[in-house]
Design goal:
The longest helix is centred in the last third of the chain and has 25 residues, at about 240-265. Helices cover about 50% and strands about 15% of the residues. Strand 1 (about 1-5) and strand 2 form a beta hairpin. The protein is of the alpha+beta class and about 325 residues long.
Length: about 325
């Protein structure tokens, strides 16, 4: 299946057989405690409310620095094609040392090199990956976190002046500019040594960054943002930046509701969709995005946003109720 990323590059999605996925889920249940203990800085491994807490902590650090003499910023790194580029040989060594009882499963299911080939409608080769993990496998994200654990744990120990938040292939750090510069150099060096390429490299500071520091970050090809940035699916920035991006999210959810209303007028058998099925579809389509935005943004921004969504949901359900519905 060929899905395009924002950059236009292909996103590999593994279509494994159901038995493979079931076995992965069973293995994850068994190894989760050990992997979580070995990756204490990873918010992607079952930490309840982990991303939300990290986002609020980042925002609070930036806000508190505005009225002080300190220049505090947040830096964000995102690893490009993280799963396919994971070195499975190195990962196997980490598993052997820390979760040895999962090694046989790993060697049989993951350790072997895979080729995932993409074709367009004319059977033209789009991309081919011959190593790494497979997206769509329940164990891929935990294994990737395990592969990065050495880098994350080392930096957390060596650079305590910087608050670090890791979410799978996304790294975020908050601190004073000089400390962030040291952190950035180390993170870029270590990920390169591990065979990873960094895609997004950005830094946001509420205050003006001195010219000499701008030059240092530019040398590392880190984009300097002046209004705000997206981290872990949420936004931090000035008021205008927050309002603009939340409005875009609101517009996207409202458009989704409008599409659902059109799609559910008739189902694929030509019969009218039941009201319960339609409302379930609404819930499944927007619930996660809606609640995540509410939980990761200050109430002063989300109040208007929530009212717009409430009105759109009410209008959509009202239109459903106005129809003659198929019995459940």
């Amino acid at each position: 299946i060929l899905l395009k990323k924002k950059s236009g590059k292909p996103r590999p999605i593994g279509q494994d057989e159901p038995l493979r996925k079931i076995s992965s889920l069973i293995i994850w249940k068994a190894v989760a405690p050990d992997i979580q203990n070995y990756c204490p800085n990873q918010l992607a491994l079952g930490a309840s409310g982990g991303p939300e807490a990290a986002i609020h902590a980042v925002r609070a650090s930036l806000q508190s620095s505005i009225n002080s003499q300190e220049i505090v910023a947040v830096i964000n790194f995102d690893i490009e094609n993280a799963f396919p580029n994971t070195n499975t040989e190195n990962l196997g060594s980490i598993i052997k040392e820390n979760v040895p009882y999962a090694l046989q499963w790993f060697q049989q299911n993951v350790g072997k090199k895979n080729t995932i080939t993409f074709h367009d409608g004319k059977d033209t080769l789009i991309a081919s990956y011959k190593k790494g993990l497979t997206q769509g496998d329940p164990m891929s994200a935990p294994l990737f976190c395990l592969a990065l654990s050495g880098i994350n744990n080392f930096l957390a120990e060596e650079m305590k002046e910087v608050a670090q938040y890791y979410y799978a292939d996304n790294a975020n750090a908050v601190g004073q500019l000089q400390h962030l510069l040291t952190y950035a150099k180390e993170y870029i060096k270590l990920t390169k040594q591990a065979g990873f390429n960094l895609g997004t490299k950005t830094i946001y500071c509420p205050k003006e960054i001195p010219e000499d520091m701008k030059e240092e970050f530019n040398k590392l090809n880190i984009q300097i943002l002046t209004e705000g940035m997206e981290i872990m699916g949420a936004y931090v920035g000035n008021d205008e930046y927050m309002k603009d991006n939340l409005q875009k999210k609101s517009d996207h959810i409202i458009q989704t509701l409008q599409k659902i209303e059109k799609l559910t007028e008739m189902d694929n058998t030509g019969k009218q969709l039941s009201l319960s099925k339609a409302t379930f579809l609404i819930r499944q389509s927007i619930n996660n995005e809606f609640t995540f935005i509410l939980r990761t943004n200050p109430p002063r921004f989300t109040k208007q946003f929530a009212q717009q969504i409430d009105n759109a949901i009410y209008k959509t359900i009202k239109n459903f109720i106005g129809r003659k519905h198929q019995d459940d």
